[in-house]
Design a protein that fits this description.
Helix content is 26%, strand content 12%. It is an alpha+beta fold. GO terms for molecular function: DNA binding.
Length: 329
Amino acid sequence: MSSPFAARPVDNLGHATHPALHLRDARDAHVVFEAVRLGILPLITRRLTASEREQLASGNVFVWEEAEHKQVGGLERWTDGRRWSQSRMRGDYLFYEEKIETTPEEKEAKAARRARRTLDPFAAPPAPIRRQDRPSKPDGLTKQTYSTHVHTRRGEPPRKWHVVAYFSGDDYTRLPVVENYEYLRNIRVPEGIFTSAKGNIARFGRVLEDADSHEPPHAGRDYHDWTPAPWALTSPVIRGVPSVDRPMSSSSSSSSSATLRTSSQYSVGQHRPSSAMGTLPRLATVVPVGPLTPPASPMHPTSPGSGPGSYKPLTAEDRRVLNSFRLAL
């Protein structure tokens, strides 16, 4: 039994690359691209006219080449004169839902903006309705797109091709696929001709992941002299509490380095984490029980008689002077 579809494409395909075809995955798109490269299917090299835009139907497939600065044989962008939702990634394709053209609210807002601009050119215009807030068209189309880089000749930069396919509702289940057309199902796509345009995005994402996996170098000459507090190294990990073991800025490290070095002389390192997770170390193991000795300053060296043992209690005259400053409540 012969196939219900022609063995060769009809001579008049209208304004589309293919009039009735459903693309399921990247392989189907590559088959269509190869058919265009071999001249079996036409490449769209111009914008659609107003009448062609109105004739868009479910199953239409367009392959067009992206070109910058209106180069001959290419388009800067694809325009079909319809409003679409934001793109959604499903499998290998980006999908767009058709939205209604203009709502009554948009018409009123547009008239209000025009009137306000006439009365007060410097007044701030009201915020327009966002695209995602626009209702979907009841009998609208769904657009799916896919892009590829085409390597035609060695030594030449690749060309960028796009495929745009339209369908409505669930009729894609009734549309023909590549295997239904003999001139498409017999096509064998050679290796290395088509590469996904998403490869650049994937490589860029890997660069970001590599950058996030390595800590950036810390600036400041005081970082190497910084030593974390001993209890920050020996205290148990507590869930929900961020770690305090991180370098301080260069502006604060110089002022606190002496304090950090002084605190390291106490026997805090002898603390052992408790067997129960989530318990804090005893205060006695973190703060020394004895009197703290202030760090020696190069500007004010400690004299032999100025240690902790040279402290003298207040005299009776000192207490009388202090009591005279107290306010009676």
